[in-house]
Fold these 2 entries.
Entry 1:
Amino acid sequence: MTTKSLDAPHDIRDLALADEGRRRTEWAERSMPVLRQIRARFAAERPLAGRRIACCLHVTTETANLMITLRAAGAEVALCASNPLSTQDDVAAHLVRDHGVHVYAIKGEDHETYYTHIAQALAFGPDLTQDDGADLVGSLHMIKLGRLDDLSGPVRAMVEEMSAEEREALVAGVRGSTEETTTGVIRLKAMAVEGVLQFPVIAVNDSRTKHMFDNRYGTGQSTLDGIIRATNMLVAGSTIVVAGYGWCGRGLAMRARGAGARVIVTEVEPVAALEARMDGFDVMPMAEAAPLGDLFCTLTGNLHVIRPEHFRAMKDGAIVCNSGHFNVELDIAGLEVLASDKREVRRFIDEYVVEGRRVLVLAEGRLINLAAAEGHPASVMDMSFANQALAAEYLIAHEATLERAVHRLPPEVDQEIARLKLAAMGVGIDTLTDEQVTYLASWDAGT
Ligand SMILES: NC(=O)c1ccc[n+]([C@@H]2O[C@H](COP(=O)([O-])OP(=O)(O)OC[C@H]3O[C@@H](n4cnc5c(N)ncnc54)[C@H](O)[C@@H]3O)[C@@H](O)[C@H]2O)c1
């Protein structure tokens, strides 16, 4: 059965994939009870009626459920990918055909196409943007500041066609933005510090119901899943080096240990390193870990965490991948210079020969959980995207008063999302008695 085709403007792989995309999106929806409840309320209240939202997110079944929720709230929506490898083409087709979302995303798109799609999302003329890595907001700010040389080719070409008034109107039209990930929030906070931020932003990543669950449990499980799907390696008995012991690193270290690996953590921040040691992991510099690891995974949000000197020290057959946001954590350019040979030995695996030893790089150093697996489970994205949906509503409801700064959603929103999730899981909790409320608010009770 097919539903009526809404057939919005698009650039996707193949509209004929829509049925499969719909089946899989509905499967994800079963594990997204919080977003479902928000969608039902949005459909009744239409808090985003007539608003235009441009989203730059991983085009997955979970994102599809967020897009459908924004549509239920009355918004017009355009969607492009936040990573060239993470798009699920069937999902893109479903959103175009069945929900009238303007989708510009194709799995494996080249650099030029990726930025052409970002330009198309910007050309949509949004009132709000939703980013995962700040690519839309970054481009809007380059336009505002006249830094056209810093724009990628296709975005620059679009902007050069526009008059000064049109450029000004494009940026001024944006009432606010939401940001999904740690890396994007770091960029936005840098814009705020420089005093150039043009509109208020909600750092969805900073909600407790986002980073404590999505980054830790979602990334932990899906990163290991991506590694296993790409390599079919046996985790038990292997030595896995986890670079970065933030929310994502903790999640992977925990899951790798659970699957029987010896886990080594590398860090640059003393408190995080100490925590890793206290959690029972070996902690050492990357230079010492390099000859020991069977598999290395970076989750730092930082640049060139694994460099040529580390690749040179690795044992034959060492596997290297990244699950941080950008493909900059592995110095692939440095590895290319070092290697005497390179060939693809299996889907998602490039083998480099370094001084006679083989180093295997997964998914070109891009997010392994999205490239080789399906990203986070729907159940965890339920909370992240509940935050996204409520952040869009919050921005519109407070557009007249919110400062141009990076904001968190109020703690009550976090608590409401956790309450809905617990209810969906059938988990009850206690409530404070009146006596406890008074006790906690007083200072005069002693021993
Ligand atoms: N794969 C995914 O699906 C996914 C999901 C959420 C976030 N992310 C991304 O993962 C990255 C990490 O996110 P997070 O929430 O864990 O951030 P975080 O800030 O909680 O943790 C990052 C950790 O890396 C450490 N670090 C920085 N440079 C390092 C270096 N050179 N060597 C070793 N450690 C170093 C920091 O000290 C910090 O403890 C970000 O890029 C984020 O956007 C990916």
Entry 2:
Amino acid sequence: MNNRFWSHVDKSGDCWIWTGRRDPCGYGRYHTGSEHLAHRLSWTWCRGLIPDKMYVLHRCDNPPCVNPEHLFIGTQSDNMIDGITKGRVRLPPQDGEQNHQAKLTAALVEKIRVRYAAGGVLQRQLAVEYGLTSVSAILTGDEWPTAPGPLKKKRVVYRPGRAVRSWYRANA
Ligand SMILES: [Zn+2]
């Protein structure tokens, strides 16, 4: 093991804290000819080589921690998911409507349909309550057609047939 490396590590707590230089995200940086991430070096020395394109992630969500017990190997998407669930990574903002649609789940769609079918609530109120631009397409099943819940009947627009139209033309 690399003694110079471990001399920069404070092992007094559960997390082994890198006391050397850190990057803006709080990850330890270490020079051995070229610059490395301290927790990746720790993994390499304690556990072995990191497979290509894989990431060393923190179970403890403590970036300067280099305790191999707190580290695990994951893919880039694990890294993203890890960051998102821990609030470190923010997904790029989407435009309002898409964002709102993304918040919906089939269970929520069902709830909206059931509440509307029960009556006493306006579409507008439901839309506001659930942060949607409109709930009408959800209620008619134009959106979320496979989600459960009672569907609202679409308003039938009366279109006179050809015979009726020609009768009107002839008699107008
Ligand atoms: Zn830790």
